[in-house]
Protein: Molybdopterin oxidoreductase family protein
Organism: Nocardioides islandensis
Amino acid sequence: MSTNSTTSDRVAKVFGEETPHPRGTVWPARVDQYLDEGLDEQDVDRWVQSACLLCSNGCGADIAVKDGRMVGIRGRAGDTVSHGRLGPKGLYGSTPWAASPDRLTRPLIREDGRLVETDWDTAMGRIVEVSKRLLAEKGPLSHGFYTSGQLFLEEYYTLAVIGKAGLGTPHMDGNTRLCTATSAAAFKESFGADGQPGSYTDIEHCDAIFLYGHNMPETQTVLWTRILDRTRGEDPPRIVCVDPRRTAVAEEATRTGGVHLAPRVGTNLALMNGLVRELFIHGWIANDWVAEHTVGIEGLRDIVDPYTPEHVADICGIDADDLRSAARIFGESDNVLSTVLQGFYQSHQATASSVAVHNLHLLRGMIGRPGAGVLQMNGQPTAQNNRECGADGDLPGFRNWDNLDHVRQLADAWNVDVMTIPHWAPPTHAMQIMSYAETGSIGFLWISATNPAVSMPESARIRKILAGDQCFTVVQDLFLTETAELADVVLPAAGWGEKTGCFTNVNRVVHLSEQAVEPPGEARSDLDIFLMYADAMGFTDRDGAPVVPWRTPEEAFDAWAAVTAGRPVDYTGLSYAKLRGPSGIPWPVNAEHPDGTDRLYTDGVFPTGTDYCETYGHDLITGGTVSEQEHRAMASAGRAFLKGAPYTPAHETPSDEYPLLFTTGRTVYQFHTRTKTGRARSLDQAAPDAWVELSPADAGPLGIDEGDWVRVESPRGAIQVRARIGRVMQGAVFAPFHYGHWDPDDLADADHRTANELTMTVWDPVSKQPTFKTAACRVTRLRAGDGPAPAPTNTASAPASGANDAAAAVPVTGGGSATSSRVLTETPRYALDPSQVGSSHVESSREDH
Ligand SMILES: Nc1nc2c(c(=O)[nH]1)N[C@H]1C(S)=C(S)[C@@H](COP(=O)(O)OP(=O)(O)OC[C@H]3O[C@@H](n4cnc5c(=O)[nH]c(N)nc54)[C@H](O)[C@@H]3O)O[C@H]1N2
Ligand SMILES: Nc1nc2c(c(=O)[nH]1)N[C@H]1C(S)=C(S)[C@@H](COP(=O)(O)OP(=O)(O)OC[C@H]3O[C@@H](n4cnc5c(=O)[nH]c(N)nc54)[C@H](O)[C@@H]3O)O[C@H]1N2
Ligand code: SF4
Ligand SMILES: [Mo]
């Protein structure tokens, strides 16, 4: 095999070598590989099939194993998602945490106020004792579960069955509520059910790409590489960026002749209404398609009518002509791809703004064909599975809790009484679960694979809830996190590579991740832990048989696949054997689509029938539910909904006391609360501590220079961090949310650097997603720092150019960092078969030379 191999430092060079290609051709392959320092390929004992678990992109990957340890990772060239690529997090962050000396290896229980090591029988015994007592005294509503977007499908499904068929509690949700609840909600409102309509292959065909509140170059680096390979190739698409910071997306928008719209934080819906209005005003409407495939156009026209470009400019602080230009790009392109993420989902009026993106596509008839698609993004690698399996406040298989037939289907599958399955009210969302735990009405809260003490809004309140005596808390994690420290029982879990299971990425591609190594000490897979609990509780069906009969991941998968029959999320054609092939496979996979489905709604038929849909819908302003009768009266069957809402000001807006807007987000080098990336040396070094970004115009009058220590306060709390004079819009302050105090040495300033000290307990009325991106704050200078802020310089967090002298002296991220961050890249030659473009697989034939 002849390949060009190069090594590079992917902290410095985030996207790696470009492979530009013309429109309509297959994205070339490039295989990225990382091995621990001092190792090369000959040292690897075996490669084990998996996919990267550090974001929703789900890049196909093999895990390198040596002497029973995970020592590296390599992209899978034939994988439809990534064509061999991996980004910096995937490369450097996937494996080092596993052998970290501070892994949890034994269960812990609280004795006399302290967590002490114990054995599994004692730990599970304590859990079961409390669980049984509360069930007897107060019934199932005393139980709550807060799980993740990072477990495997088999684990969510098992947990969902335990909760719904075993216990019968509606109080189960995931951190997916903080993450992609709005994505699911927006799909349900517009199309009748969850499910990503678009495909990554749309990138190869589109004329323009709109990114709404999505900093893709830092959060799905491989997907951005795919876009760069089009924008740097022949006949490139134009980019439109909607983000209050000057991100790399914004720079690419300028470079490609697109537009950067930087709306004032919290004003997305006004901007969206303005864009939709422009389509109406200019007649950029696919009238016949709209008449045949949608309902609601007249109502929408009335709602957006007041949002003239000037009015929008006034609300959003943008240029009216920029709005016109962006709308023209949408209106005059044949094929637009839109991506939406947290700048919308975690903002004020989240669902309404995200639905407005669908409105643009529906009005132009731009859905279901190559290049014309919507990617309501996910964030976490397995968020999609939680939404599918129903450990998140949905019923498994995109079933409607308000439709008795759907509930009966599950009762039959599980052989339980239909009344056991909670369906008398909407499932309880995570923010409400925390409120019930606060009062003690939930007295038993089981948290798995999430770290709410850092990641939920209003940290001080969350800490108080978790630490209090009113609620018994179980935490199941890899590490003694900030959350685990507050628990009554801590269970040591096996992580990625230490267990087998499947997960589904943002464009419905299912991957199998095989166990590569043994978990450390007594750590067990989450599946085994849930099964242990189910067995100990003795949950049985109508015939006295165990309600959870399976024992292995594969059996759990098969049970799940069976329950998806007849639903949009159809896995019936998938099996472990099939997933051991060259590529992940996008659902639905069934008799009709044995090789999977690249894009949904190609026939313009949507799952909106009253008897089929996942929800009857909501009012986008109040969240009020639409009844079955009202839904039936709209006779939507198969047609998509055009829904709108007027803009309303955010819950908290700047005041004299708190004059600046506070918003939060991510940096490319860190993942969430850093339990993995904080343990990978080169990633940790690239962004080792918290900071805030201020615009030069705001920093100047406050006397703040690059690297100065500042105090940032909101009505809920304060943090003390260093300041980056950066690229955020004037009037706004941006903070990364990654930094808790997981390093015990950091305990001293534990509560003073976590962005969520400042955020609010408020949520979107429809998706119930908390608004991490809209609050007010004030900033004061404390003292000079001893150098620049600990923020990267090659990302959206870069210093504002020419802001001041200190910024000019900020050292460049990467470059000099250790050899541990080197990556081998091969560019194999692939036969470019045009039929592969737009097909569900890239089963490229490798040409050996
Ligand atoms: N490196 C890295 N990658 C990740 C993750 C990670 O932690 N680190 N996490 C993964 C997960 S779970 C998720 S959910 C995704 C999130 O991925 P993104 O949504 O891309 O990331 P964020 O930084 O949270 O927010 C995106 C942008 O929203 C902008 N924004 C803030 N307020 C507003 C507003 O009012 N309006 C608009 N239009 N924009 C606004 C911010 O400036 C920011 O650039 O990333 C995934 N990938
Ligand atoms: N201010 C602000 N806050 C935010 C956001 C924001 O943009 N701004 N974003 C929100 C979003 S989108 C998200 S997704 C959340 C993320 O917030 P969290 O879910 O709290 O983030 P993680 O650090 O990924 O936590 C996952 C935990 O699971 C553990 N873990 C990993 N794998 C396994 C496993 O296989 N089994 C078990 N049992 N444990 C495992 C890890 O060690 C870690 O402690 O944060 C939210 N919070
Ligand atoms: S883009 Fe996401 S899934 Fe792919 S390598 Fe990076 S972190 Fe992993
Ligand atoms: Mo997320």
